[in-house]
Amino acid sequence: IGVRNPNFWKPGRPYLDEIDFFGIADDAARINALLSGDIQLAGGINARATRQVKATPGYSIFETQGGGYTDLIARLATPPTGNADFIEAMKYLMDREQMKRAIFQNYAVIGNDQPIDPTNRFYNPHLPQRPYDLDRAKFHFAKSGIGAGAVPLVASTAASSSVDMAVLMQSAGRKIGLNLDIKQVPAGGYWSNYWLKAPLCFGNINPRPSADIMMTLFFKSDAPWNESKWKDEKFDTLLLAARSELDLKKRTQMYWDMQAMIHQGSGIGIPLFLSGLDAHSDRLMGLKPIPPGGMMGFDFAENVWLA
Question: Would you give the DSSP letter of residue 300?
């Protein structure tokens, strides 16, 4: 329970006298609490719940476009996922448009297997988009030599919508002779038992406020959270150099080059950048999108009021 500080350093803020902030883990229960009037703001809702909210008078969806994503992870040091042709085949198997429409109800932006999204000033708009292409996927899969044996793909509700994404990829895989065996595991313990350990699985990466932080956390060779264990000395050198480059044009080119290197060489497939979705009563005013996270980058408390 947060109570208004009368000596807050921003004059006139916050507007509310008190905020009761608590967690409701179940998606359906969270929406029901909102639509029954028990709460005024529900954070991090599933895209499939948006129709129910929008169909209920007096309630709306608040969308924040940013750099969060659910990614496919193929660990480079582990067979069979360390095979470059297998990884390329998996990336061509991702039907990004179908995922955007069917799973995320169009609350997403098409990704291109690199972690910098279009809201970031260093996003590379010139990188050729990797398409959904069964012919190329079939070519690379045949070249990989893996054959018809089952390839385990670990998914969990812990990684947002990864189970649905896995099912679409499994269906596409059958068309090229790839037998993806989906292993759906419980959300509890997923991050400690499977993420960074399973040869082929999913991650779920929250938005970060800068390109440097995103790349340092997840793609630098010695990063503890380097999901696919991709290592590239040239990338590491560029990443460090970009931090001290004062010429914006040169620095931008550095980040563009790094995105191209991740796109081409890493074991990470990023099909989409996912919007943060919050649902709220129309009485709640003052919300505006801030890309690092939902609920105004988690800074809603000092900015909202009730009409």
Answer: G
Please state, in angstroms and rounded to a whole number, the distance separating the CA atoms of residues 254 and 211. Answer: 11
CA distance 31 to 37: 10
- Two structure tokens written together for 137: 């996927």
Query: In this predicted model, what pLDDT tens digit does every residue of 246-300 receive, in sequence order?
Result: 999 999 999 999 999 999 999 999 999 999 999 999 999 999 999 888 999 999 9
pLDDT tens column, 48-68:
899 999 999 999 999 999 999
Angle subtended at Cα 256 by Cα 254 and Cα 258, rounded to the nearest 5 degrees:
70
Write out the E strands in the chain.
2-3, 18-19, 41-42, 59-74, 108-110, 150-155, 179-184, 200-205, 268-269, 272-281, 284-285, 305-306
Chain segment 149-195, per-residue pLDDT in tens? 999 999 999 998 999 999 999 999 999 999 999 999 999 999 999 99
**3-state helix, strand and coil shares in percent for the chain, rounded to the nearest 5:** 35, 20, 45
User: What Rg, from alpha-carbon coordinates, does the chain have?
Assistant: 21
| Distance from chain centroid for Cα 159 | 9
SS (H, E, C) 206-237: CCCCCHHHHHHHHCCCCCCCCCCCCCCHHHHH
The SS3 call for residue 266 is: coil
Query: Is residue 244 packed enough to be buried (19+ CB in 10 Å), middle (13-18) or exposed (0-12)?
Result: exposed
C-beta neighbour count of 88 within 10 angstroms: 21
* pTM for this model (two decimals): 0.92
The answer to whether residues 268 and 113 touch, using CB atoms and an 8 Å cutoff, is yes
Residue 293 per-residue DSSP state:
B
What is the rounded CA–CA span in Å between residue 307 and residue 289?
Answer: 19
